[in-house]
Amino acid sequence: MSRLADYFVVVGYDHEKEQSGSPYGCGKILQRFPEKDWEDVPFIQGIDLFCQPGGWKLLSKALEPTFFIAVLTDIEAERHYCAVLTFSEAVKMTPTRPDDVEEELEGALVHHTMMFAPKSLVIISRLSYFETLKNCLGLIYTSYIDSLDVPLETLVGNILGHIQVPPANGPQNLLNDTQESVEHEWVRFSIGAGDRQALQPPLSDTLPVTGCKVAVLTQQLGIRNVLCLYSAAITDNKILFHSNSYTRLTEACTALLSLLFPLKYSYVYIPILPAALTEVLSTPTPFIMGVHSSLRNEMAELLDVIIADLDGGCISIPECISLFLPREDILQRSQDHLTLVLNPELKRADLAFPSPVDSNTKAEITDKEIRAIFLRLQAELLMGYRSCLTLIRIHPEPVITFNKGLFMFQRSLVGEEFLSKVLDSMSFAGYVNEKGPPYRVCNIFDKLVANIADTVSQEEGHPERALKNIRDVGDYLFINENPTKTAYLEKIPRPTEGAHTRINQMPFPHLDETLVGDVIEDGLNKAILQSLNQKASKVRHQKAQNVPLGTKISRYEDRMNAINNSARRLEVLKTCIGHIFDNRILDAKKLFPAVLRSLKSRVTRLALVRRLALHVQENRAVLEQQQFDMVVRLINCALQEDSSSEEYSLSMAMLPLITAFCRKLCTGVIQFAYSCTQDHPVWASLRFWETAFYQDVEINIRQLYISECDTKCDSNDTFTESPSNSANGFITSSERSPLEIAAEQLRLWGTRDRDEQDKMVQNEESIVYSQAIHYANRMVCMRVPLDIQRGLKNSIFMDGESGSSKLSSSSVSGSDSYNAESTFESDSNDVSHQVIKFISRFVDKVCTEAGVASEHLKNLHAMIPGMVAMHIETLDAVNRESKRLPPIKKPKILKPSLLPGEEKIMDGLRGYLLPDGREDGIGGVMGGPAYLPAEGAIFLTSYRVIFKGTPIDIQACEQVVTRSFPVSALFKEKKITVGGLANSLHLEQFMQEGLQLRSVTFQLLKIAFDEEVGAERVELFRKMCGRIRYPQSLYQTFAFHGSTVSPLLSVQMKQKEKTATLRKLATKTLARGKKVVTGGSHHKTKLPSRKDRYLLPVEPLVPQRPPSAATLQRQMNAASLDSITVDSRPNSVLYEEEDLSNDDSQMRVRSRAGSYSSDLGFDASPRWGRRSRSQGGSFLSVIEENDVTATLKPIDVLTTDKLQKKLYVQDYQRLGFNISSGMMRPKLGEAFRISEVNIHFEVSRSYPSLVVVPSALSDDSIRRLAKCHRQYRFPAITWRHPGTKALLLRSSGFHGKGMMGRIKSAPNPSTRATLGKMSSFRSGGSGFNSTSMAKNLTLAPQSVSRNGSVTDYDLASKKDQDPRKAALYIFGEKSQSRAFKMEQFNKCDFIPYDFYETRHVKNSLKKLMKACVPSNLLTDPECGFHKLVEDSEWMVQIQSIMQLAGAAVDLMDLQGSSVMFSFEDGWDFTTQVVSLAQILMDPYYRTLEGFQSLIEKEWLAFGHRFTHRSNQTGAHQASGFAPVFLQFLDSVHQVHSQFPLSFEFNQYFLKMIAYHHVSNRFQTFMLDSEYERFEAATHVFEDKLTSHPGESQDDKGPMRSFWEYINKINNKQPLFYNLAFAPHTSVLRPYTNFSSLRIWDYFRQEDLAGGPSFDRELFELATAEDKEVPLLPSDRRVINNCYDNATQAEPDMHMWLLEEMLQLEGDLGRTPQHWKTRLDRAQKSFPSRVRMKSLSVKIKEAQMQSITAHKKTTIDILVKGKNIIEPQPKGFAAHHHFEAHSYMTPTDCDYCSQLLFGAVKQGCKGMKCSDCGFNAHEDCVPKIPKQCVRKGSTKEPSTGPSRPTSDEVVTAGTPVTPAGVSGYDEFHAKIGETRSHEGYLNKRGARLKGWKQRWFVLDAQKHQLRYYETRNDPHCKGIIDLKEVESVQPAFPTAGAPKKCDESAFFDLKTTRRAYNFVADTKPAAEEWISRIQDCLS
After folding, report:
1. Paired sense of beta strands 1368-1372 and 1388-1392, if any
2. Residues 6+ apart with CB under 8 A from 85
3. Please, are residues 950 and 932 in contact by the beta-carbon 8 Å criterion?
4. How far apart are CA 1535 and CA 1441, in angstroms?
5. For the ranges 745-759, 843-857, 1257-1271, 1851-1865, which has the lowest average pLDDT?
6. Is the pLDDT of residue 906 over 80?
7. How far apart are alpha carbons 1437 and 647 in whole angstroms?
8. Of 1049, 1401, 1758, 1813, which has the fewest Cβ atoms less than 10 A away?
9. Is the pLDDT of residue 1155 over 50?
10. Which one, of 218, 282, 273, lies nearest residue 242 by Cα?
11. What was the pLDDT predicted at 500?
12. What is residue 566's three-state secondary structure?
């Protein structure tokens, strides 16, 4: 019996603390009863805060009485329920300020003469009879308010002393003597206020009592939200409820706790949190709390709290919280069951004749059914948990632990986050301690969890069975709360209605403490007498019983054996182990690799344990040397695969084997296997040792109590046979489990005498004590290393988590090594101290939990240091003798073949080539033998990094593995951890150093160095790689090997390295510069601001004459660089930093002194650059282009005769530029000429010396024009279409300042004359007015029109002149479009294009290399190879290049318009597009000769920065490698793949170029411009010129050329020739959609046989053995794609026939002919090989389809560009409101400028905007921009043409070319609107906006998803671009969605910008939308 109430408290308003300033007021305890604390229940302080959670406040009117229950938790985690009834009490107040004070404080409370203060009556109870407590407080209030004739003291005393509540399951009346039939009775009582009350104790005190609280919570929040809250609570998340009702808060928190049953919530639990304690919400621990909704602002700052709005019915989960839910099948099953209970009418809703259903289900019944569903959910989660309980002690109290790892593993739930968090929670730990004992009182959950597996299987597909079972459990829960069948009528007097509004009501009286105490004392005395009368109340106590074990989780081995039938694998293992123990080592080695691979299977590892255990039992544990090594390797490999699993069963089974196997080193010295298996992290895991210890203790406890019969049976079992009932799997199914034995012993415990009990306790303690000693010895063996000086093998993990694996080898030479990188050097004292500390902590934990006596624990601690010291002494001798063993025989290092001139920098470092993320070479899935890992050495030469070795796999050990790459292609190197790879890769050596090298040739070397290679040599290797990769000078590379560099050039290079980039220049000059020297005078100046630090030069209009050769010689002989003087230059123009290009663009920096400096090449020459210092200051070096000729010696001055030999000049002549006359002086009337303006590189140092320009453009105009472009790269003609005569031009982007402004600012009176000459120039054959081109060549950015090539004024005013297509299209950067106005140039059009900058290309290369050459295997299925390639955006960039080049093809070939590309600095993206466009249009460039000419012209002559982009020197290291040229080659590869018959060269030729453009073997792809190449050619061979004075300049040795190397190979064999070459079309139009693009196999190619095949000399040497015996056509050869080069190794019939013809010619004595001659002669004999002269119908159709696709892409580019530059309307723009209008006079359409007919013309109506007066055809209305900027104006436009204002021109939109114009008339026409699918959808607005219904239209042609207000709405509300869509998929319902919508009709559409939420009317409609959108995406 216990008290109903512990305390009664009266709490009132504290008037004394009213002025304390607290915003929540203060309350105080007026009275409390009893005044002294109970001994068992102390009084809880601070309840005044919970009486008024919102704060104590005075009110101006009385409020109705309120009641709620607050829950308080004491220090012992016991909950106390505070029932609070609050009413208002009148208080007379006096003014709070003097009457003479007129001003009133802001916010001060005005106290009236009559105020109402709150007063609370509180009952504190430990029992949760909420309704009874409410009735008692209500009676006290009724007696007070109605002045009943009952003393309040009596009522209070009766509540505290007279009401005694029996425990659960009582009171009962026995119906018979056997106590089997009982009748539960009501507990009736009265407190003396004329009341009659009763309460019912539940049948079980362990089951929560909820009433209907759970049903109310589910009704408030919904099914899904309740499931989320349950998951959040059980996984220890913070949960906060808020509502306007305190009662709802308490009920919701109570309901949530009841759903967690049988787990008990053990964190902070405050259902009602006072406002004064809101800072508690910031606690870091989990909690369940409730606050009033008025504190909503306090919740906004909570970022890690799940907030549930009870009033709004929603929950909010922050983004930072990852809420884990139960497994999908369990969650869905529970959700379906909840739907059956809460919505029973759902299954009958679609029935035509539904049967009547009684829907009057009580809320309490529904409540219990919901709880039953959650109880079943808990049972499914914990199904089989009792089989994973480990028994440690039985007496005197059971001690049980739970093996979480085994539970997760046996249920195949390893990695399941939700269940893992549940098992790790404090609630589950408490449940195991409380409910773990096998003999106790059981409840419904024990029975439910035991049978849940069978129940669920029986309910599968039968929802009616599930509902019946749920109702059965619900009935049980209902009977538990309502055990009494008979009803009882209570009588509770209520106060008079409206009594609280009485004005003259007396205050609540002060109660007499003495009277109350007497009543309480009287009640306690009666309770004592009643307890002595046993017949007064009978309570039936529940009996303890054996807890059912339930369904046993099937053993893993049984399940694996059911599906794994690899008997062959187990047979190989058995045979191999037999060979080892029979000492047949050679036979064992043959099977050993297969056995090691098979150990990845757990079944094989368990079989290994059993086989080894059998040999231990046969006393064959002492092994020979090789036997020992092989056994240890098997053990290490098995442990390596098993160490990461959480159940540790294999490691536990290995422990006795490791301490058994040994070998004899010498007399008296034996080495055990544990000294070679210490590197596994499992030995450093404290959790492993605890699990293993508990397992052995459980086995010994079971053996202690087992019967004699069972003992006899057990004696026949081996210790390797494991049980399934045990927590660790060591008992067979036919035996009794330890829990069953423990249950039997607990049942008999009470029947034993005291002595017998003490003996049993001592026996169990001795078992624990002996096992602790045993495990301490084991831990000493596994933790103390063999070499104490090396330190611990693994760091100690106290939390049981495993770190990275670092395993030693099985050999003695490697077993005592240790990875010094991950640990620190430690002496024996440090090691012993760490081991002692680790073991002591383990002993403390397990012995304390097992209840070992303190004396025994002290003895254990005293023994541990002695054990460690003794073991260290023993291992000292073992370590000494193990070092005397003969070392492992290592293979001979194979030396690589070298190129002529290639020198070794470092001899080979022995190591292993490890497999990377590519599957090639590792066998397994790819098939064939495993070529990797391979044992060999890595070499460093002056040209390459080479690994050469042999595979360690015995089946491939005769092969040679070679992997290499040019050292200049090294992209990244880093150290890697390889300590744990010895056993995983089955290596016999211990490795401690590893290196990973990645190259831009898409090769990866992962090297694990041998133990003989020290860390110093590895570090030296890294430094040497860096030194050769980034030399100080370009002339130190392999390409210049054997060359002599002039001293002058060396000085220039050294000076250049100091200021190689703009960043370095600014760092070294601006940071130190404090003074600037100007004209020889010194003056102080402020440091420039951030935006003023960079200066750009203003070049003089007239170049200065270069100094003479004598002057140059005197300057070179000067003693100091500072002695050189240069004339002063004009002032510089300042530019802001934002106007400069990025660090990739090389900007000139200039000062007033006028000297030069640049980062482009050898710009630091003392002849034209200087740096002076004065008074400690420094000034900026000066860069100018005009004095570049001063750098050239007289013999180096270029002449036109020499330049005519250049390939690009010859290509100019091939294109028809100046063929008939002198090259520089065109004939009269010729349109173009080859200009010498840059022959001395005075205009642009990065341009070629000869450029093609219009004849009318003078050299002075070109110089002025160059200043308007970055890097002075002015527009130059690079190709001309042979048919349309359209021109292809290239230039750099424009400067920020306008060209016309810069020309006007230059003091040159001839500017107008120059423009006049350009205006008068015309070309008859160019196809367009050259005036427009000349103007575009000099156009300013401010003059570019935004609205197309033809203005509205032209269309309106020039009726006699038809508008024409643009003659010149300029493609440029989007940023330049803002400043362009092209009204003056009506034949030009500027198209902005959003291209990928160099920084994007660099990032894309990094991601592409990680995708194509990953360092590790890709195990994540969501991040596969194709996904990584997609994420790299490499293919998107290739597509961008191809699309823009295709647009140029269409514009030039179909429309006849010229095209100019002006991107960035003109040497990256511009070069890519221009080059690819020429390949597509000119068949000459698709030949070997033409492709060479194209690269020489566009990439070399026009100055692509190969040195800078390829980081060929250390000065460019920081910029990063940019694969610009590689992207161009990939683009050509894409075209080649689609048109394989149109190219004379094959794809191997492209790979050859891709490899050698970064190899630095040839000088072709080195240096940044033609100027630098001329300078290098002059200075590099200077010594040869001086040694042979009589030799002419033309006869000197040329530079090493890649093309000469190619031609040399091509003359020998058709290695680069495309034998399928049969061109049939001149213009190629490749498809650019992603499905047509291919990933270049160059990125994934692997040649392990001989290394890369691009160095033909080396490759032929490597494959020479295969060619010793020529193959016949009938011969066959097996090649492995992961080893051999398939393209080179596959027999080629053409090659074989050509070689046979050559041999026959020799036999016949004929002169050998060139292979091409023989091939042409042979092809003439085959008519099928003759090139096609006429195209078939199918080919023509394919060409037309290609043209159509290209045309669409070009239109998209032009339209998108126009949309970018389309100006936005000023102010507020509205939609047009068109109405039908009849025109009395002829009027033009304001959109298409065609005539609008009046009423006389039938069938054609005119439309007019009622707001702005816009006139248009009815057909033109949909095309007009929806921007009405003249709202309210209805002015009738004039009939005649008039020139509109500038604003009107801008807002009029882009005009459309009339239909009569031929060519690309669609470029300016709007694409017609198509509707692929349409319908209504509900769309959720952005951020906090709600759901709205919109009419959606899917347009497949425009690739858009548009939405409108209604179906007939002509104005689009918004557009979703499908190009930006990432995914579209079904979704779950979200908060605030329409109520009547289908929950399955939700779907989400995710774009790169945001995520859109949609809901359709039905599920099929949503699926239809998803399908249609996905079709558009695909």
Report:
1. parallel
2. 65, 66, 67, 120, 121, 122, 134, 137, 138, 140, 141
3. no
4. 12
5. 1851-1865
6. yes
7. 49
8. 1813
9. no
10. 273
11. 80
12. coil
Cα(817)–Cα(887) distance, rounded to whole angstroms? 14
For the CA atoms of the chain, what is the radius of gyration? 46
Which helix (H) or strand (E) segment holds residue 1020: the answer is helix 1015-1029
Q: Report d(CA 1310, CA 1317) in Å as an integer.
A: 11
Q: Look at residues 779, 384, 394 and name the one whose alpha carbon lies nearest to residue 548.
A: 384
Report the distance separating Cα 1696 and Cα 1689, nearest Å.
13
SS (H, E, C) 1101-1132: CCCCCCCCHHHHHHHHCCCCHHHCCCCCCCCC
Find out whether 678 and 779 touch, Cβ atoms under 8 Å. no
Q: Position of tokens 């991107």? A: 1463
Q: What is the share, in percent, of the chain residues with pLDDT greater than 90? A: 25
Tokens of residue 725, six digits = 């009932």
**198 by DSSP, 3-state: which?**
strand
Helix (H, G, I), strand (E, B) or coil at 1692: coil
Q: Which two tokens stand for residue 369?
A: 């059914």
Q: How many other C-beta atoms lie within 10 A of the C-beta of residue 355?
A: 6
Whether this prediction's pTM lies above 0.85 is answered by no
Whether the Cβ atoms of residue 979 and residue 991 lie closer than 8 Å to each other? yes
For residues 1132 and 1149, the answer to whether their CB atoms sit within 8 Å is no
Distances in Å between the alpha carbon of 869 and those of 672, 673, 778, 835, 875?
A: 18, 20, 14, 11, 10
Environment class of 844 (CB within 10 Å of its CB; exposed 0-12, middle 13-18, buried 19+): middle
Tell me if 265 sits within 8 A of 427, measured CB to CB: yes
User: How many Å apart are CA 1762 and CA 1510, to the nearest integer?
Assistant: 36
- Whether the CB-CB separation of 1640 and 1530 falls below 8 Å is answered with yes
- What pLDDT shows up at residue 170? 66
CA distance 1617 to 1719: 11
Residue 1822 confidence (pLDDT): 75
Q: What angle do CA 1107, 1113, 1114 make, to 5 degrees?
A: 90
pLDDT of 226 above 90: yes
Q: Please, are residues 891 and 948 in contact by the beta-carbon 8 Å criterion?
A: no
Distance CA 983, CA 1704 (A): 57
Is 1382 buried (19+), middle (13-18) or exposed (0-12) by CB count in 10 A? buried
For residue 1215, give the DSSP letter: T
User: Could you give the CA distance from residue 1584 to residue 1042 in angstroms, rounded to a whole number?
Assistant: 12
What DSSP designation does 1330 have? H
- How far apart are alpha carbons 1418 and 1401 in whole angstroms? 24
Nearest C-alpha neighbor of 1977 from the set 1949, 1955, 1958, 1953 = 1949
Q: What is the pLDDT of residue 718?
A: 38
Query: Residue 793 phi/psi, 5° resolution?
Result: -70, -40
Mean per-residue pLDDT of the chain: 76
Which tops the pLDDT comparison, 646 or 222? 222
Overall residue count recorded for the chain in this entry: 1978
Q: What is the spatial distance between Cα 1283 and Cα 1449, in angstroms, rounded to a whole number?
A: 13
Angstrom distance (rounded) from CA 861 to CA 871 = 16
What is the spatial distance between Cα 376 and Cα 370, in angstroms, rounded to a whole number? 10
Quote the pLDDT of residue 1815: 80
Q: Which tokens sit at 1773? A: 């723009």
The per-residue b/e assignment along 462-480, b for 16 or more CB within 10 angstroms, e otherwise, is eeeebbebbbebbebbbeb
Q: pLDDT > 70: what percent of the chain?
A: 71
**Residue 109: strand, helix, or coil:** coil
- Cβ atoms 1251, 1235 nearer than 8 A: yes
Has residue 1409 got a pLDDT over 50?
A: yes
Least confident of 1225-1229, 1628-1632, 1766-1770: 1766-1770
1670-1682 pLDDT, tens digit each: 545 555 666 676 6
Q: Mean pLDDT throughout 122-138?
A: 92
